Amino acid sequence: MEIATTRGNINNAVIDTFLSFRFELVRYLKSKRLLILGGLAIIMPLLFLLKTVNTASGFAVLALDVFGVFIVISAAMFTGDAVNGEFERKTNLLSFSTPQRRSSIFIGKYIAAVLATFFVIMLFYLTMTLQMAGLYGWGEIPAELGKSFLIALLSAAAAVGVVFFFSSLLKRTMASTIVGALFIMWVMEIVRIIMMVVGQEPWFIPTYSAELLKNVLNTESILDLAPQQMFQERIQERFGITLTFYEPELWLGIAVLATWAIVGFVSGMAIAVRRED
Amino acid sequence: MEYAIRTENLVKKYDKGFTALDGISLQIKRGEVVGYIGPNGSGKTTTIKILAGLMKPTSGRAYVNGIDVVANPIEALRTIGALIEVPGRYDYLTPHEMLTYFARVYRMNHNGIDRRIKEVLEWVKLSDWEHKKIGTFSTGMERRLVIAKTVLHKPDILILDEPVLGLDPVGIRDVRELIRRCRNDGMSVFLSSHLLSEVAEVCDTVIFLSKGEVILSDSIVNIGRSVEEAVLHVKFLKPLSKEEIEKLRTVELIRSLDVRDRTALLHYDGEPESSAKILKLLVSSNFEVVSYGMKSAGLEDFYVSVMGDEKGVN
In Å, how far are B89, B189, B242 from B143, measured between CA atoms? Predict the structure, then answer.
């Protein structure tokens, strides 16, 4: 009897999570958030319409150089209001007084944010692949692009996890969206530079691990105008600081991104379900 | 006896040391319409938030339909419809989309959802807006939509926190009708309101709350009796002449009178027998009486007498 009740509870939780997920997706669609970010994901590779580099891999690395930031922005836009939005808009007064667990509501929202960000990434990679096929031919498309795509998805999950945590922690949606994005793009980058100065590999930094999405293509970006050595010399000359450059290892990077995704989600959930007005 | 709503020594203390509820014990019978009255900050919304699963009490217990709200919120919330404060709105959605979502959360039969949505939207006079964006709604329409959401799943218990807030007179009348309809359907209604006239119109019982404590609970009938004054309010067909006023003064049972145009306030000893005799005398003396009744001080005066000078009631 008890087993049947537990199973019933789990079934109900799964149904509620699905309902919350679908409701959130409808909201993304209706608010045109998905449309705008999806549109940008399609437009971005098209900005590199010209055959600016000689190889398809080089082209992909160039486009992905810009796309890293877009992943973080998309994650922040979809996740920034996942938890605090309910309290700020006071829609919690409608949804929390219904027979569903808060955890189901928030898990549904989290999944919606993850999948919406995945969808935007997929659009980007799809457009970029088609463009590469048009510019260089299908045969030139590197097999590693699939690996890069999977790492991009994992990076997105990590970014969503971080922003989800801030959405649970902070009161205002604007604050969590901005703080979440800046935490990843600035705070983590500053820590990374400090680590490089002290000669330690910044292995736990998500943006460092996210570089794998370019690195797996084994091609240098033409945006790296100043080769590392020259850059190092200039920094040494001007500030008297020696920077040590590192490259993330594939499996460690994957593990780091997965950890950020899980820790962000779990800690965000822990706060979200306890939160009161 | 299983109550629709029951609380036992409900206490809620906030982080900053403020005690919102200080041992509230309520017992609301099935099918009863109960008004929950008190000034701002007296703990009305806190009680309702605990009953609706939005907040956990610091101590004490709250039950709806005999189910512990804290221990078993899912089961408890299945049987209630709650309207709390002024909820936010899903601007980009239509009432149909929003209500469909909640109908599914309540596990309503899929085949009946569309029909039920049309029914509740008709009740709140939003039928023409079923597929229009909520973002374009006025405050009153928004309120009506939330009321529709509250009754969507035909709950056993309705918990309403200031339901007529932002509504025009027609909207207020419609909500009153809705509460009556719910009562006739056997629902229990727990109504928190600032509008005492509203409470007096629809409630069977009133609970007065002050500084997190219940200070009085009684039926509207009993409260009405206790506030009746020894004054008769009489309306005549035509304004009274000087002779007629003099004639009234000679009536022994009338101690004094105030006459203004077609209305007279007759002060007497307050006994029902005296009231009956005065009416008989008026009619036999050819006064054309249009209406005749005891002047009541009303719930508002009673509220002031119970609460003293506490602010926060309209």
Answer: 10, 18, 53
Tokens of A185: 């793009």
A31 interfaces chain B, CB cutoff of 8 Å: yes
Q: Give tens-digit pLDDT for B22-75.
A: 999 999 999 999 999 988 888 999 999 999 999 999 999 999 999 999 999 999
User: Is B229 within 8 Å of B294 (Cβ atoms)?
Assistant: yes
Q: Are B162 and B85 in contact (CB under 8 A)?
A: yes
Rounded CA-CA distance A16/A30 in Å is 21
Say if A198 is an interface residue toward chain B (CB within 8 Å).
no
CB contact set of B229 (below 8 Å; sequence gap of 6+) = B270, B294, B295, B296, B297
Say yes or no to pLDDT of A2 above 70.
Answer: no
What letter does residue B80 receive in the DSSP assignment? E
Contact A196, A205 (CB under 8 A): no
Q: CB-based contacts of B113: which residues, under 8 Å, 6+ apart?
A: B100, B103, B104
Question: Which residue in chain A is spatially nearest to B89 when comparing CA positions?
Answer: A91
Q: How many CB atoms lie within 10 A of CB A4?
A: 8
> pLDDT-based confidence at A218, cuts 50/70/90?
confident
Phi-psi region of B239 (alpha: psi -120 to 50; beta: other; left: phi over 0): beta
Dmax (CA) for chain A in angstroms is 75
- pLDDT tens for residues B68-102? 999 999 999 999 999 998 899 899 999 999 999 99
Residue of chain A with shortest Cα separation from B84: A93
**What does the DSSP assignment read for B283-304?**
HHTT--EEEEEEEE-HHHHHHH
Q: For residue A15, list chain B residues with Cβ-Cβ distance below 8 A.
A: 107
Query: Please, what is the end-to-end C-alpha distance for chain A in angstroms?
Result: 37
Sign of CA dihedral A129, A131, A134, A140: negative
B126: Cα within 13 Å, side-chain hemisphere: 30
The secondary structure of A35-72 as a DSSP string is HHHHHHHHHHHHTT-S--SSSHHHHHHHHHHHHHHHHH
The shortest C-alpha distance from B231 to chain A (Å) reads 46
CA distance B34 to chain A (A): 20
Q: Are the C-beta atoms of A16 and A109 separated by less than 8 Å?
A: no
Contact call for residues B277 and B217 (beta carbons, < 8 A): no
Most B CBs within 10 A among A12, A22, A93, A173, hence the mutation to make, goes to A93
Residue B53 DSSP SS3: coil
